[in-house]
Amino acid sequence: MNDSSEPVVEADAAPAGIGAVEIVHGEALDVARTLPGGSFTLVYLDPPFNTGRTQERHAVSTRRADRAADAIQDGSVEVNHGFHGHRYERVRELLHAYDDRFDDYGDFLMPRLEEAWRLLADDGTLYLHLDYREAHYAKVMLDAVFGRDCFLNELIWAYDYGAKPRTRWPTKHDTILVYVKTPGGHVFNVDDVEREPYMAPSLVSAEKRERGKLPTDVWWHTIVPTSGREKTGYPTQKPEGILRRMIQASSRPGDRVLDLFAGSGTTGAVAAALGRDALLVDVNPEAIRIMRQRIPHATVHEA
Questions:
Q1: Which residues of 149-166 are buried (b: 16+ CB within 10 A; e: fewer)?
Q2: Stretch 272-287: mean pLDDT, rounded?
Q3: What phi, psi does 42 have (nearest 5°)?
Q4: Fewer CB within 10 Å, N- or C-terminus of the chain?
């Protein structure tokens, strides 16, 4: 980010108790490399899901694939030493045995994961939001960058909307991989997370029914409704309820939150409402336009 650049648009005054938001128009990796390390308590990444990859499968021998699977399973592939000691070439070699097109996505995602690790504070948490096409690759890459002991959760966001094919089970979930910078030293505000109704309320006491239960690692939550205050028209917009749960759990008022693929700005809108400061980055001019409208008190810069 160019420190000498002026905001593209002047921000309105933020209401009392609302966190500051900065929007940067630029490429995620370029902007990330200008930021000081350890600056953010929470990093949320919702990168492109790589859905444009050719669906025709390359021929991979069973022996190659089995050898790769065995190496990952038994730990001989070196993916558990953390960022400073990881050997990405070895990770690439093993994943390449599954899919010769791995480099297309791995070369895009890996440096951005490394920057996310660098930018997290010691008590920080990364949430990486993916779909079924790339989650298995990303898990191995995150083990390489963070270390396997830094894995916290695999969250499943389940919803029930859209087309339902009749030749397979309909795909109605996203995967969110959660890694921490320091195992056991991360922020997790269990009492601040909004609770949800019991699925079998008759089986619990009236007191428990009234309080609700702590969410598990499966989150049932609708997509952004086609009509309503949240809807911005941005095609990959995520619902505020999903981001609210992450931000409540893994940051505190006054902490800084980073989103390098900010899209419609949901991360910033929710973080600000919860009293956190947010830095939002996106390369798409349409995303910048929508975020300006959605978060009028944000400052906007060109990278």
A1: ebbbeebebeeeeeeeee
A2: 97
A3: -140, 130
A4: C
> What's the CA gap between 91 and 72, in Å, rounded?
9
Give strand pairing partners of 280: 23, 259
Of the listed ranges 106-115, 177-186, 255-264, the least confidently predicted one is 106-115
The amino acid that residue 41 corresponds to is T
| Cα–Cα distances in angstroms (integers) from residue 17 to residues 14, 77, 300, in the given order | 8, 48, 20
Residues 6+ apart with CB under 8 A from 163: 170
Alpha helices in the chain (DSSP H): 28-32, 62-74, 88-96, 102-119, 135-146, 206-211, 240-250, 266-273, 285-294
| Spatial distance between the Cα atoms of 48 and 130, rounded to a whole number of angstroms | 8
State the pLDDT at residue 95: 63
3-state secondary structure of 301: strand
Judge contact between 178 and 144, C-beta under 8 A: no
Q: Please say whether the beta carbons of 31 and 258 come within 8 A.
A: no
Q: How many CB atoms lie within 10 A of CB 52?
A: 8
Residue 234's pLDDT band, with cuts at 50, 70 and 90, is confident
pLDDT at 27: 97
pLDDT in tens, 9-51: 556 666 778 999 999 999 999 999 999 999 999 999 999 865 4
Residue 64 — pLDDT band, cuts 50, 70, 90? very low
Tokens of residue 158, six digits: 């389940």
- The whole-angstrom separation of Cα 127 and Cα 76 is 27
Q: Which domains does the chain have, with CATH numbers?
A: 21-54+61-302 (3.40.50.150)
Question: According to the model, what pLDDT value does residue 230 have?
Answer: 84
Chain centre distance of CA 136: 15
Beta bridge partners of 282: 25
Tokens 């396997």 -> residue? 148
